[in-house]
UniProtKB/TrEMBL annotation:
<dbReference type="Pfam" id="PF00296">
    <property type="entry name" value="Bac_luciferase"/>
</dbReference>
<dbReference type="InterPro" id="IPR036661">
    <property type="entry name" value="Luciferase-like_sf"/>
</dbReference>
<keyword id="KW-0560">Oxidoreductase</keyword>
<dbReference type="InterPro" id="IPR050766">
    <property type="entry name" value="Bact_Lucif_Oxidored"/>
</dbReference>
<protein>
    <submittedName>
        <fullName>LLM class F420-dependent oxidoreductase</fullName>
        <ecNumber>1.-.-.-</ecNumber>
    </submittedName>
</protein>
<feature type="domain" description="Luciferase-like">
    <location>
        <begin position="20"/>
        <end position="114"/>
    </location>
</feature>
<dbReference type="GO" id="GO:0016491">
    <property type="term" value="F:oxidoreductase activity"/>
</dbReference>
<dbReference type="InterPro" id="IPR011251">
    <property type="entry name" value="Luciferase-like_dom"/>
</dbReference>
<dbReference type="InterPro" id="IPR019922">
    <property type="entry name" value="Lucif-like_OxRdatse_MSMEG_4141"/>
</dbReference>
Amino acid sequence: MSVSLGRYGVWRHETGLSPELAAEIEKLGFSTVWVGGSPPGDLALAESMLDATSSLTVSTGIVNIWATPAEQVAESFHRIEARHPGRFLLGIGVGHPEATSDYTRPYAALVDYFDRLDAAGVPVEGRMLAALGPRMLDLARERSAGTHPYLTTPEHTRSTRERYGPGPLVAPEHKIVLNDDAGAARGLGRPAVEKPYLGLVNYRNNLKRLGWAESDLDDGGSDALIDALVAHGTPEQVAARLDEHLAAGADHVCAQVLTPGMAAPEGDLRRLASALGLGGAAAR
C-alpha cells in the first residue's frame, strides 16, 4: 500500500473536526486532513471523515503511544484500511515529558511500539512519526514512511530533507493567520505558540537547534519567532510562506488555520485554497 498526501493539507485539533468539515475541505481541493491532538485509539473520527469523503486522505497528528496500546491502534488501522484502502496514514508520537507522567526512555518506547505495530501487520508505509531532533528523525526514516514535524520552520524542513535524501516523506505543520495587520496577527498567533509549546522542552530544544536564543523563547516569544512560526498576511502571502516548505524539500505541508475565538475556519480555508490555486476553490 501507499498513501498519497498531496501537496497541501489542513491540520486541526480533533475537537474542531467533523465529517461535514472534512467534506468541505475535500471540495476546496485540499488533499489531506490531519487529526490533531491525541485522538483515541478507536480512530472513530478519522473513519467518519473518510466515510463522508471520496478521495481525501486522513492522518493522525498524532496518536500518543503512552495513551493507546499499539495493538488497539493496529486493529483500528486494519478496520479503516479495509474500508478505505490507501486513504489513511497513522501518525504516532511520544508527546512530551511535561504532559505525560509515563514519559520514560521515549526512544526505546518508540522502538518497542514500532515492533508491536510490525507484529500486528501495520505496514511501514502506512505509518509516520512526529519527529524533531536528529535521533527521532532517523528513527522515523528507518521505521516509518517519514516524519510529520510540528511547530517548525522551512529551515527545519531543509535540514531534514538534507538528512533524509530523496524518498522518505517530510510533512510539516505550519500555523497561519489570514490577516495583513501584523500586530493583530501576532495577537492571535502568540497564544497558540506560547501555551503550551514554549513551555515544553522538546520544542524549546528544537527551536534552539534552529538558532533561536532563549530570549526569543521567553515571555511569549519574540516577534521574530512568532512571525517564523505563524505565517500571516494576505492569502497570497501566506500561500507563499507555505510554499517555502515545499521549496525546502517537503513533500506536503499542512496549514493550521488560527481564527479569532476559534471561529469556524471554512471562510479562511476557502481564501487560502484559492491563493494556493487549488481546483476546488477555483470552481466555487
